[in-house]
Amino acid sequence: MEQRYLSLAEMVYAIEERQPSDVFLKVDKPPLFKIKGKIVTSGLPKLNEKNIFLLLQEIDKEAPYLLNEKKDLDLSYRIKNPEGMFESLRVSALYQQQGKPVLVLRTVSKGLPTLESLSLSPKVRKLIVRMLEYQNGLIIIAGGTGSGKSSLLSGMLEYLIHNSYSPRHILIIEDPIERMQEDVLDYETGSVKAVITHREIGRDTIGFKDALKGALRQSPNVIIIGELREKETIELTLQAGQTGHLVISTLHSLDTYQAINKVINFFDNNQQESIRYQLADCLIGIISQRLLKRAYTIAEQIALIEIMFCTDTIKELIRKNETRDKFIEEIKKGEETQSFDQHREELIKYDFI
């Protein structure tokens, strides 16, 4: 009997009741599902190399050839779920383990979450809203992989779209695009509330640097950058934040202090002092996030958040290249800041963890 290969949609929704956030596909292994922070077996048969390449080809006909060329590939894909609604997938394809292909699929929920739906504390939500009221400057969302950065970024985008007193042009640069957003109309007045422009790395532009160069000529009010990855992107990001644009981006780092130093350390020693001053001048704030297991549940998670509003004192600490202890001390005593330890104590007090 000829082997039947599973389709991509069947793979993701094989367990309808437990819809996984991530799916891990490896040669000679059954698919694994990540559900509310736990990795579980899928009950599906082992995959062979041909099946994985067929899945990759279903995402993009050129993808197998691009993977052979680059050895590492990020894509986005839209699939129809059992209810007939379209959802997005982030697809990471790479080679590992003696040249065998591996796929990691991450599902992206439909629509944009609101800040209220993200279970943020009143203090954190209030500080984030204050940050979003700025007309120019830089907001950084920091955290590790799977820490909820994308969800928080989406919640901030939803707030910007629906809580603006004047129409905005919002430019979103991602690799790959996670959620496609249409222009937003005010149905009562017939006017446009937000014009949304998406640019995907690899499809619409060569890289973040090229997209940002073009962005400064496209008259955006808000620029959302999927991730700060390289020196040239950060240079243009700081420039945009200093020239009348509100810029929001994510960064892989463990906390707010590390985020500051990671930005600075992209640059050579002879540039770092100048970058410190530029960053201090345009930084609005940093939100750093981790996920913890919620109390009294098997697998649900809750966000642990460190938030640093860039006050005059914080700006001076950045300029002077002060130590981690100095930053933590200032974060703990400020009304516009909150440390991880302070938030953990609050979560324990209210029996969340």
Broad structural category: alpha/beta
Strand order, sheet with most strands:
9-10-8-11-12-7-13-14-15
Strand composition percent: 25-35%
Residue share in helix: 25-40%
Number of helices: 12
Series of secondary-structure elements, N-terminal to C-terminal: HEEEHHEEEHEHEEEHEHEHHEEHHEH
Total beta strand runs: 15
Tell me, what's the shape? globular
Largest sheet: 9 strands, mixed
Sequence stretches where pLDDT stays below 50 over 5 or more residues: none
Mean pLDDT across every amino acid position: 86
Radius of gyration, taken over Cα atoms and rounded to an integer in Å: 21 Å
Kindly, what is the distance between the CA atoms of the first and last residues, rounded to a whole number of angstroms?
A: 52 Å
Q: What can you see in these coordinates?
A:
The chain has about 350 residues and is α/β, with parallel strands linked by helices. The chain contains 12 helices and 15 strands. It has helices at about 10, 50-60, 65-70, 120-130, 150-160, 210-215, 230-240, 255-265, 270-280, 310-320, 325-335, 340-350, and strands at about 20-25, 30-35, 40, 70-80, 85-95, 100-110, 135-145, 170-175, 185, 190-200, 220-225, 245-250, 285-295, 300-310, 335-340. The strands form 2 sheets. The chain has a 9-stranded mixed beta sheet, sandwiched between helices. A 6-stranded antiparallel beta sheet has the order 3-2-1-6-5-4. A hairpin with a 5-residue loop joins strand 4 (about 70-80) and strand 5 (about 85-95). It starts with 7 loop residues before the first helix and ends with a helix.
